[in-house]
Amino acid sequence: MITAAQQKAQRNRGTLFVEDGELIATDTLPGEQYIMRIRAPQCAAAAKPGTFVHVSCDEALPMRRPLSIMRVADDWIEVLYKVVGAGLHLLANKKPGDTINVLGPVGQPFQPSPERPNALLIGGGVGIPPMVFLADALRKDDGDWQPLAILGSEIPFPFTLVPSEIPTPWLEDGIISTMPLFESWNIPCRLTSLSNFAGCYRGYVTDMADLWLQSIDADEHAKTEIFACGPTPMLKAVAELAARYDLPCKVSLEEFMACAVGGCAGCTVEVTTPDGPAMKRVCVDGPVFDAGVVSWT
């Protein structure tokens, strides 16, 4: 008899690859942040918004690091990370032409509902990449998507701030800074921070999201779905906001991972199921979960 776990493993066959990727380029950004473009055609072809890669940082370091995918093209993926610890420090020393072994794409992706085209994308810090990937996918889709992105950071944003020409009448004048990619895609995006960055809203991402939700009527609420990635306290606050407005909300959880393929069960979180509380693995059962079932305590 085949178990549910075995059935799930079989469904995932043919979608997970181990590749010796080639580092194409690295952008070095303030706050020890890096954007890496890696040639990994198999991973790029299978990647979906919300999935991630498990990256080998150096031959001398056996443990890999999970990195969210930010963008993909025909044969490359982009990842954004902040140096935390020895492993990512080693990765940051890689040069164009170096080999970077990647395992991926790993995990369950975001699955936006076409009946809710108002996609509110909320990203904090290194949780920004999945929101970029999701926005890129929505703009390329044939659906009637109307995404809005709200991004937050307390260190310098991992991109050059530019003034937006896309109107956001629900915000006070002067809140105009945005991410260049979103502006080029004609997707409204605004930035939040408590660090007094020029043109940014002073507050939390949930504060700005609340302002937008207050500005739309019941019909628009019925078309809205929230997607978020970032540190756990931020995701908990987003989940509470979604519950207050009775909106569906999907969150991509951040967790330490050893194997990233479900074998070690070191990245489990508690969720509510019809049969009661259960432990789910963030790597393969997630990283995307319904915010309403996650135990945030």
Compute the number of structural domains: 3
Widest beta sheet: strand line-up: 12-11-8-7-13-14-17
Which word captures the global form? globular
Helix content: 10-25%
Distance between the termini: 37 Å
> Radius of gyration over alpha carbons?
19 Å
Instruction: Provide the CATH top-level class of the largest domain.
Output: Alpha Beta
- What is CATH's topology name of the largest domain? Rossmann fold
Name the structural class: alpha/beta
Task: Describe the protein.
The protein is of the alpha/beta class and 297 residues long. It is 23% helix and 32% strand. The protein has helices at 4-11, 41-46, 86-92, 128-140, 180-184, 205-215, 218-221, 232-244; strands spanning 17-29, 33-39, 52-55, 65-72, 76-82, 99-106, 118-124, 148-152, 162-163, 177-178, 189-193, 201-202, 224-229, 249-252, 268-273, 276-281, 288-290. The model is unreliable at 5-11 (pLDDT under 50).
Summarize the structure.
The protein is of the alpha/beta class. Helix content is 23%, strand content 32%.
SSE topology:
Layout: H1 4-11, E1 17-29, E2 33-39, H2 41-46, E3 52-55, E4 65-72, E5 76-82, H3 86-92, E6 99-106, E7 118-124, H4 128-140, E8 148-152, E9 162-163, E10 177-178, H5 180-184, E11 189-193, E12 201-202, H6 205-215, H7 218-221, E13 224-229, H8 232-244, E14 249-252, E15 268-273, E16 276-281, E17 288-290
Parallel strand pairs: 7-8, 7-13, 8-11, 11-12, 13-14
Antiparallel strand pairs: 1-2, 1-6, 2-5, 3-4, 3-6, 4-5, 9-10, 14-17, 15-16
